[in-house]
C-alpha cells in the first residue's frame, strides 16, 4: 500500500504514468468489447447449435473466456498485486471463482438478468475499487477499510452475473445445460490458474526491481484509469442504446 497518496506531492514518475495510461487506453479501445467478459461470435454460434453434454468443449470455452477477458484479468491483477504468499493468492482467487460460478449458474438456470450495460459498468467499477484499495485510498479519503475478502467475493458474483446475462441472450439448448455450465466453470478455473501463473511469474521478476513500489503506484493509477474507461464505455452504451 501507499502512504503518500493524498499528500499533494507530484506523481513519482508522472510522465511515465501518463504514457502508460495513454498506451493502455489506446490498447483497450482497439479490443473488441466481446472479449471483455462476453462470448466471441464464433463461440456464440457453437453454443447455440450445440445440444447434449459437451464437457471438453465447454471446459475449453470457460478457459478461453477467462484468459481473453481483460476485465477479469485486470481485476485479478489488482487482487494479487500485493499478495506474496501462495496461500493468500489461492484464497482470494477461490473467493472470486466461487462468486463467479454461483451467479453464472443461478442466472442462467433461473433466467434472471438485468441490463448487460449496468452489470458491465459495475465490473468496470470493480477494477477502480481494487486500484484504489491498492493505493490505500479508502482509509485516507473515507475513513474506513472495506473487507477485501468480502469485496472479492462480491465482485466475483457480479462478474459471473454479467456473463450469465449475456448467455441468456443465446438460444441455448436445455439438453445437458447444467453439466455444460459446470464444465464451463471448471474451464474458468483452469484459465484463471493459467493466467495468474503467468502474471505471478512476471511479477516475481518485477518485485525484485528496487523501484517496484514507485512502479506499483504508476501501475495502479493506470489500472484505475482503465476501470473508469470501462465504466464510461458501458454507461455511454446504456444511455445511447434505444
Keywords for this entry:
0% strand, mainly alpha, globular
Question: Uncertain spans, ≥5 residues at pLDDT below 50?
Answer: 3-11, 29-36
Number of strands: 0
The average pLDDT is 79
In sequence order, what are the helices and strands, one letter per element? Answer: HHHHHHHHHH
Characterization of this structure:
- The protein has 242 residues and is mostly helical.
- Helices cover 74% and strands 0% of the residues.
- The protein contains ten helices and no strands.
- Helix 5 runs parallel beside helix 8.
- The N terminus is likely disordered.
Summarize the topology:
Elements: H1 14-29, H2 41-49, H3 55-67, H4 70-79, H5 86-110, H6 116-134, H7 137-142, H8 148-167, H9 177-207, H10 212-240
Helix pairs in contact: 1-10, 3-9, 4-6, 5-8, 5-9, 6-8, 6-10
Brief digest:
The protein has 242 residues and is mainly α.
